Amino acid sequence: MDEYESLSHTKWECKYHIVFIPKFRRKSLYGDLRRHLGEVFRQLAGQRESRIEEGHLMSDHVHMLIAIPPKYAVSQVVGYIKGKSAIHLARTYGERKRNFTGQHFWARGYFVSTVGRDEAQIRAYIQNQEHEDRRLEQLNLWR
């Protein structure tokens, strides 16, 4: 059994599988941006006392397994990560002609599922997502 986290009056294990995409599903998550973004996500999650346990950035979407304490809503943490990372990306990689806090990088919304007893299965899915996508693309080409 996994070790439970604790707050002052609770023991908890709240893990979520979250998927979100860039606006217009642009294929912009590659190269230096891909390596840099993983560290940015980890720092932002840490600011909300959350921990990214597994993650994979594809060229057009992000998968992550994240542990969020029950005192924070999932939407609050994901909104914070998406918002602050978009501002950071705009300031770091965008043009510096104006303030980029109003620009949007991520599309609205996200997919979330709770992780219960199938945590190992979800971790394997996240790790092998890129390989599976390529395999499915190859199968669709033959139809």
Automatic annotation (TrEMBL):
Tell me the GO BP annotations in alphabetical order: DNA transposition
Q: Which SUPFAM superfamilies match?
A: Transposase IS200-like (SSF143422)
The domain of life for this entry's organism is: Bacteria
Q: Which residues form the Transposase IS200-like domain?
A: 11-129
Any one GO MF annotation of this record: transposase activity
Q: Enumerate the transmembrane spans.
A: none
InterPro entries named among the record's database cross-references: Transposase_17 (IPR002686), Transposase_17_sf (IPR036515)
Q: By its UniProt entry, which PANTHER family does this protein fall under?
A: TRANSPOSASE FOR INSERTION SEQUENCE ELEMENT IS200 (PTHR33360)
Q: Which NCBIfam families match?
A: transpos_IS200
Descriptive protein name: IS200/IS605 family transposase
Name the source organism.
Pseudolysobacter antarcticus
User: What is the gene name?
Assistant: tnpA
